Amino acid sequence: GTLRDHRRQLGTAMNLNQSIALSPDVIFQEVAGETVILDLESESYFGLDSVATRIWQLIGETGNLQSIFDTLLEEYEVGEAQLRDDLETLVSEAAARGLVKLENKP
Question: Which of 27, 76, 82, 92 is most buried per CB count within 10 Å?
Fold first, then answer.
């Protein structure tokens, strides 16, 4: 019961109708299916695995969380709840570090 309640709370925290954009202060390089990110503002480096790299690519391509979610659901064998949790974790951490900007659509 608790895990399901926890998932439900996480699921409602991320609004898939938001738009998302990469910060202009961030440069990134893809190397062998993984991505290295440099935040020029904080001079910090971050590494992304192959799935996070795909999310990063989709952020740059679509800028739409719902589209990103739908694409990942098609491309990976993952349940909706797990995908939502993983996407929310990556997006919230990236937003907290200033790597992406989230905006509510008008």
Answer: 92
Q: List pLDDT tens digits, range 56-90.
A: 999 999 999 999 999 999 999 999 999 999 999 99
By CB atoms closer than 10 A (0-12, 13-18, 19+), residue 91 is: buried
DSSP class of residue 78 equals -
In one-letter notation, the amino acid at residue 98 is: G
pLDDT the model gives residue 6: 40
Q: pTM score, two decimals?
A: 0.80
Contact 80, 14 (CB under 8 A): no
The SS3 call for residue 13 is: helix
Q: Compute the CA torsion angle 44, 60, 36, 34 (nearest 10 deg).
A: 150
SS3 (DSSP) at 77: coil
DSSP single-letter state for residue 67: H
